[in-house]
């Protein structure tokens, strides 16, 4: 059996833009991925609202992805694949991080993960970096999205250039989630049920070709 850890933010957790609640399992992309891949795979779902690659958020604590990745691995290993889908929250205006800094955060998250397995003398699982979905161009007009602005939109575009380079340098796989899913009209950040389904199908096809 192949074991996969999906490690991400609210779009992996399944945040519903309209209600603020969590989509049921049959809607969330990691759960759909499990059904698509079947019994030969075990997909572990680990999403957290507000999670960043490495940055602390004084307004939303316990969100640094790099600080929680090792415990997440330890409770799910052995693993064959780790899927990272992070970066959106890093673009929040009050964090003040550049696209370069966010990409370096992803690289640190990857290196920390790889170093853990090397130090333990265990096989290093493959890592798939999912470039996050876009932030809506009109994000400043959306209600309840004051943490993101036009600079956030540009930073996300910058990451689409930087993430593939980081993935290649670290020996990882890369897939752009924005090619399959778009942000909802309601908040310009989170995926719709259709987006979750489309992303799961794209990831499933990609995984079948790699594992």
Order of secondary-structure elements: EHHEHEHEHEH
Shape field: globular
Low-confidence stretches: none
Approximately how much beta-strand content do the residues carry? Answer: 5-15%
The helical percent reads 25-40%
Radius of gyration: 16 Å
Structural class estimated from helices and strands: alpha/beta
Please work out how many helical segments DSSP would assign: 6
Distance between the first and last residues' Cα: 11 Å
Can I get a quick summary?
The chain is of the alpha/beta class. The chain has helices spanning 10-13, 29-37, 65-74, 99-120, 150-169, 193-210; strands spanning 2-8, 41-47, 81-85, 126-131, 173-176. The longest helix has 22 residues, at 99-120.
Explain this structure.
The chain is α/β, with parallel strands linked by helices. The chain is 39% helix and 14% strand. The chain has 6 helices and 5 strands; from the N terminus they run βααβαβαβαβα. The chain has helices at residues 10-13, 29-37, 65-74, 99-120, 150-169, 193-210; strands spanning 2-8, 41-47, 81-85, 126-131, 173-176. It has a 5-stranded parallel β-sheet, sandwiched between helices. Strand 4, helix 5 (150-169) and strand 5 form a beta-alpha-beta unit. Helix 2 (29-37) crosses helix 6 (193-210), helix 3 runs parallel beside helix 4 (99-120) and helix 4 packs parallel to helix 5. The longest helix is centred in the middle third of the chain and has 22 residues, at 99-120. It is globular, with a radius of gyration of 16 Å. The chain starts with a strand and ends with a helix. The model has no long low-confidence stretch (mean pLDDT 96).
């Amino acid at each position: 059996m192949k074991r996969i850890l999906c490690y991400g933010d609210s779009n992996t957790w399944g945040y519903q833009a309209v209600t603020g609640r969590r989509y049921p399992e049959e809607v969330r992309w990691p759960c759909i991925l499990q059904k698509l891949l079947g019994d030969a795979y075990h997909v572990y779902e680990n999403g957290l609202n507000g999670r960043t690659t490495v940055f602390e958020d004084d307004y939303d604590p316990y969100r640094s992805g790099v600080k929680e990745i090792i415990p997440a691995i330890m409770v799910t290993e052995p693993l064959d694949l780790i899927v990272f889908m992070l970066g959106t929250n890093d673009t929040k205006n009050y964090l003040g991080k550049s696209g370069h800094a966010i990409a370096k955060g992803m690289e640190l998250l990857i290196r920390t993960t790889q170093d853990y397995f090397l130090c333990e003398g265990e096989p290093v699982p493959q890592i798939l970096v999912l470039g996050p979905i876009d932030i809506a161009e009109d994000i400043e007009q959306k209600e309840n999205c004051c943490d993101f602005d036009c600079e956030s939109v540009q930073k996300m575009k910058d990451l689409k250039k930087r993430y593939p380079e980081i993935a290649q340098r670290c020996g990882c796989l890369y897939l752009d989630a924005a090619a399959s899913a778009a942000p909802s009209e309601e908040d310009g950040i989170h995926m719709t049920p259709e987006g979750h389904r489309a992303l799961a199908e794209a990831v499933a096809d990609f995984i079948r070709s790699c594992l």
